[in-house]
Each structure stands twice: as C-alpha cells, then as structure tokens.
Design brief:
By secondary structure, the protein is an all-alpha fold. The protein has one domain. About 65% of the residues lie in helices and about 0% in strands.
Length: about 80
C-alpha cells in the first residue's frame, strides 16, 4: 500500500475510535443521570467518594452505614 492510503486508513481508524469512546462515555454519564433521577436502589452518590480523597483522616465519619448482615458475618 502507498503511504497516503495508510495515513487515510489511520485517520479513519482514529476518528472511529474517538467516536466510539465518546459514545461510551456519554451513555455512561446518561445512565448515571437516569439512575439518580429515578432513585434506583443501586445508585451511589459518587461525590461522597470523591471527597474521601480530601477527608481521609482517622477521625472522619464513615461514608455509609454497615448493614446488619455484614456485621453478623464479621462476628463469626
């Protein structure tokens, strides 16, 4: 193949990869928005976890309360 043909194929491949990544990113962001608005039980507030980096002292309170079933497993 000629150099120009390879560069054209490379350009189309980069564009296709970029379009694919953008579609995946926006679909993930939309799904988070939809779950937050819907109030899904599996939704987590990711802002709490992002603040964990700034507030990581031993005296800080836990982000989530533990469930009773997990406490029973730990005691056994």
């Amino acid at each position: 193949m000629e150099y120009e043909t390879l560069m054209t194929i490379q350009g189309y491949a980069k564009f296709a990869l970029l379009a694919f990544v953008c579609i995946v990113f926006y679909s993930y962001a939309f799904s988070i928005y939809k779950r937050n608005r819907k109030g899904d039980a599996n939704y987590r507030d990711f802002e709490k976890y992002s603040n964990l980096v700034l507030d990581d002292s031993i005296e800080s309170k836990p982000l989530e309360e533990r469930k009773k079933t997990e406490d029973k497993k730990d005691n056994e």
